[in-house]
Amino acid sequence: MLLIDLDDNGHTTFNLGYRDRYEGENHVQNVLLDGEDPSDFIVPVVEDLDLFPSHEALEEVETDLKSAMASSQRLFRNVVDPLLGDVYDYIVVDTPANRGKINDNALFATKNLMVPLRPESGWESGITQTNKRLIQEAQQYFDLRLLALVPTDLSERLDQDTQDRNLLQAINSRDALEPFVPNFAHLSESDWEALDAGEYNDELPGIRHRASIDKAHRARTPLRDFDPQCDQLEYYDELAQIVEKGGVVR
């Protein structure tokens, strides 16, 4: 699998130990605008996982893409099309939340989207704007599929009025959102009744905050290798299955 980091904050690149690539030669410019071979800038992470790192000058790339021919198709033409299938079975792109040419390139190249949702102020307007300004607009030009809405970094009680509860209730109760909620975050009315009565015995829904996840980041090691016993790994496995199947399957 190839992971392409196009988020200008470079967190994924840093966490995987390639800060030097983030601060070095502008390889993103070289590939997207100059047409150089992406394989020259791909680095290994662990077995079966490679990384195309982010770069600190992505704002310059964003600006230059605006005047380039076929500006929203560069990632597909120069990276995804030549590598997907022949070299990699899967290519995942990490992008910034803001709209722009880099984001447009990621959407056109992958044509599939997963949206992480943190239980913080503004998540509701965020998913509304993502749907209106990214998904619906892109769907006017090509087939873009929303694969999943992923509640993540949850840590609060669900039997009280918390942001975690409000997020989970909202996405599970709205007809437009519920089909995209992974099974590990899906709650029925009877589940909520059991939670409020103190009788809920299943695993807590959503990807929960775990110290081992943060420690794995700091150790620049995939979670599966850092803590093979982490109880959240099965949820990441379901996300992989969603990618394979093209959506959530109840």
TrEMBL record:
Q: Note the PANTHER family from the entry.
A: COBYRINIC ACID AC-DIAMIDE SYNTHASE (PTHR13696:SF99), P-LOOP CONTAINING NUCLEOSIDE TRIPHOSPHATE HYDROLASE (PTHR13696)
Q: Name one Pfam family in it.
A: AAA_31
Q: Which intervals hold domain AAA?
A: 2-133
Question: What is the name listed in the Swiss-Prot or TrEMBL entry for this protein?
Answer: SojC2
Top-level taxon in the UniProt lineage: Archaea
Q: Which controlled-vocabulary keywords does the entry list?
A: Plasmid
